[in-house]
Design a protein that fits this description.
The structure is a single chain. It contains ten helices and nine strands. By secondary structure, it is α/β, with parallel strands linked by helices. The strands form two sheets. Strands 3-2-1-4-5-6-7 form a seven-stranded parallel sheet, sandwiched between helices. The chain has a two-stranded antiparallel ribbon with strand order 8-9. The longest helix is centred in the middle third of the chain and has 21 residues. The chain is globular, with a radius of gyration of 18 Å.
Amino acid sequence: MKLENRVAVITGAGGGIGRAGAELFAKEGARVVITDVDNRSGEQTERLVRDAGGEGFFVRTDVSKAADVECMVKSVLDRYGRLDILWNNAAATKLCNEQDRPVHLLPESVWDQMLSVTLKGVYLCCKYALPHMMAAKMGVVINTSSTDALIGQGGYDSYTAAKGGIVSMTRSMAVYYAQFNIRINAICPGFIHSPLQDAWLSDPRSRRAIEDLHLTRIGRPEDIAKFALYLASDDAEYVTGGIYNIDGGFMAFKTRVVDYSGERQE
């Protein structure tokens, strides 16, 4: 097993990518600490992990609040005595889908909440987890960013700002913490089908439009979890400071030729 006896904290693990990661990491031998702001979904992920024979527990955590994060890290150390892997996956995705806007229309409260959860949450989790990795002279940090951090995505200005900050922060942290044998990388998922996207994908026209942005298919949470597993494992001991698009070819889709009828051309 790739993560045998390691302790992994995954934020935003109540569903979607985080839940898929919790299940896969546990299957690969990790003791998984499931964090989410929603009790019901977090506890459900814990049950799924345990029912599959894995080990882990849920800690309700609002990653935008220092006291919550500090308490979560303490609970991990109290139970397991170590923290080997931190996957910063929590984000205000629902807020993005429903309330993000171009800046001139963007309420300040949405901006503040988006950056507080999506970017500040990465800072706080790293602030409280990294000292323990530094003491152990080893560790892995994985940050979930987005392809939206790397291209223009009109109308989602607070989300792109937060995810872009994660990209830059990942690079700078990777440089500094390499001296402690800590590897830090970011994943930029493309369009991933989770329950938050059901409304779009249930409409045939919008589904086709989204499919047409990919060279392969629409992504699944498991696609991201599998790459995170690679980054968390010793297979990736040579890998740090990287920003990885796991997006079904989304970032490269403009290399296709499209004729005037809208048909795809090879």
